[in-house]
Amino acid sequence: PHEVEAWAAQVRELARARDAVVLAHNYQRPEIQDVADHTGDSLALSRVAAASDASTIVFCGVHFMAETAKMLAPDKTVLIPDARAGCSLADSISADELRAWKAEHPGAVVVSYVNTTAAVKAETDVCCTSSNAVEVVASIDPDREVLFLPDQFLGAHVRRETGRTNLHVWAGECHVHAGINGAELTARAQADPDADLFVHPECGCATSALYLAGEGVVPAEQVHILSTGGMLDAAKNTTKSSVLVATEVGMLHQLRRANPAVDFRPVNDRASCGYMKMITPGALLRALQEGRDEVHVDAATAERARASVQRMIEIGQ
Ligand code: 13P
Ligand code: SF4
């Protein structure tokens, strides 16, 4: 503990000296979450990045998040402690693939999850995150076709919630969330039928959670399909003594902090994102000492991509 405190003091001192704000996603390692100025989901962190007065943003998260911050704050220096921290979901569609898909559906509105590269965002009309995907799609003229990408499970969730039949979904997935499967969720829910279920819509088991509710295995009011930020709000308000959590395991740290009286248990304790965990305490320290890895987005791409992110931020504000 003493070493962690000394490291945290050093991080804070270096951040002050660099006029840097440190942002951490909810899936970061606990010590990174605790040292950050702001911890949150991808939408909340994009908003903080856009509004911050600091001249440097240190983004403890994955590359597309740091890229989004750079697009929203092009005059700021944006650092990611390890530029190799990618995302399997963002890798599941390229800008060329998206252009080809658009050519098959002329006139369709393109809605991309923020877990995409800047080049894909540049081909997008409006971005969304898991906390506002339903709202974003609901805001689109019901007569227009929608191309939703890249996550198939989030896409299925949006289709269910909006009832839209003209929504086409790309077959991408996040390897961590896709691996949280229905069989595991069912077994855990059957063993603890009084527990609330918090399920991220990127999970392979999101449909199973609704099935369990439909079949009466778990009362419907105990099943919550939520973004990481939504889970945090729900954690503060749950009346249950235990909650089964289907998302990346880093989330448990924030949930337990938000409501220490509740027993938060992972549906799959191996659901850890290796990319998120590349941001180690040592990497954060190095980033602040050496000013790297700096994130750059080509100006023309950034300009086109920024519009899609800004449209998202404006919806629901
Ligand atoms: P949210 O923080 O938007 O819920 O995103 C989940 C995720 O997988 C980000 O990588
Ligand atoms: Fe990407 Fe999945 Fe990791 Fe999130 S948890 S950063 S979606 S690979």
UniProtKB/TrEMBL annotation:
The keyword Metal-binding applies. Its cofactor is [4Fe-4S] cluster. Pathway: Cofactor biosynthesis; NAD(+) biosynthesis; quinolinate from iminoaspartate: step 1/1. Keywords: 4Fe-4S, Cytoplasm, Iron, Iron-sulfur, Metal-binding, Pyridine nucleotide biosynthesis, Transferase. InterPro entries: NadA, NadA_sf. Gene3D superfamilies: NadA-like. One of its GO terms (cellular component) is cytosol. GO terms for molecular function: 4 iron, 4 sulfur cluster binding; metal ion binding; quinolinate synthetase A activity. Its EC number is 2.5.1.72. It holds the Pfam family NadA. Transmembrane segments: none annotated. GO terms for biological process: 'de novo' NAD+ biosynthetic process from L-aspartate. The keyword 4Fe-4S applies. This is Quinolinate synthase. It comes from Actinomycetospora corticicola.
